[in-house]
């Protein structure tokens, strides 16, 4: 079993075992917001196939090189290769690769943000045990509510925790046994639509009821906006727009920037003030 050590950096894990909830967008915006505020931010992408978060940061580096701009950027690292001969008897190679990457960043960074794949993997499981703050973006629908708990649509009754919630519970147990502080689990209501107010209210009530049962906080995420798809190719975030020559932000962009400010404030991270 991997060891859960005490870390200097505050570790933020973005996890959700369903794809399409905006994990990489949330990861990039939170990591870059912290970097722009002057914090040293390390970044890891555990989705070794898709690498959406890693590609987002690579796009940013390429754009900054082309444009000559100097914008704060998270320090992205690949997981190091580990030779089989270097493993201890019974040690998992993925445990070693992740712990080595975190150890490499830990002494120099204020925060390490780890983006997990949209599926259950050994790397994601280990990352959850390292989380000081766990962010779970959730599309604002009962299809995604199923990620957290089994739900009776007719009565609204919670039938039991999901496999993902049970994994978070196990991670909390391991941290408690190691004498570490509890995970601050924050569920983001992401991709909120302007319509369907009745469904939005039902979803809000169900999440609040569930939060008390399985121990997470609910925070507002991002509304569904075209701007997020436009930012990715150049690796930009909402906070970078004025620095790249966009002087007249439209109302949608201004609202999105405020959503990001609200999100960072809701995370209540140590030593982090308001986003400018």
Automatic annotation (TrEMBL):
What Gene3D superfamilies does UniProt report for this protein, alphabetically?
Answer: P-loop containing nucleotide triphosphate hydrolases
The record, for SUPFAM superfamilies, names: P-loop containing nucleoside triphosphate hydrolases (SSF52540)
Protein name per Swiss-Prot or TrEMBL: Chromosome partitioning protein
Organism of origin: Rhodovulum adriaticum
């Amino acid at each position: 079993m991997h060891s859960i050590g005490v870390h200097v950096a505050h570790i933020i894990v973005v996890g959700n075992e369903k794809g399409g909830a905006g994990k990489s967008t949330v990861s990039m915006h939170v990591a870059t917001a912290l970097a722009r505020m002057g914090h040293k931010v390390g970044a890891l992408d555990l989705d070794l196939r898709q690498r959406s978060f890693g590609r987002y940061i690579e796009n940013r580096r390429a754009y900054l090189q082309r444009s000559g701009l100097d914008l704060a950027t998270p320090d992205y690292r690949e997981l190091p290769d580990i030779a089989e001969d270097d493993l201890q008897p019974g040690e998992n190679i993925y445990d070693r690769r992740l712990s080595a990457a975190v150890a490499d960043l830990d002494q120099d960074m204020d925060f390490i943000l780890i983006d997990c794949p949209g599926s259950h993997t050994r790397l994601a499981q280990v990352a959850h045990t390292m989380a000081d703050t766990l962010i779970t973006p959730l599309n604002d629908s009962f299809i995604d509510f199923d990620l957290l708990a089994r739900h009776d649509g007719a009565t609204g009754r919670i039938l039991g925790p999901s496999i993902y919630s049970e994994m978070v519970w196990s991670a909390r147990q391991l941290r408690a046994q190691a004498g570490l502080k509890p995970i601050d689990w924050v569920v983001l209501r992401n991709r909120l639509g302007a319509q369907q107010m009745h469904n939005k209210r039902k979803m809000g009530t169900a999440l609040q009821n569930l939060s008390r049962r399985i121990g997470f906080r609910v925070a507002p995420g991002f509304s569904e906006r075209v701007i997020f798809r436009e930012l990715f190719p150049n690796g930009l975030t909402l906070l970078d727009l004025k620095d790249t020559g966009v002087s007249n932000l439209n109302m949608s962009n201004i609202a999105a920037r405020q959503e990001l400010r609200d999100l960072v404030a809701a995370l209540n991270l140590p030593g982090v003030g308001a986003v400018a």
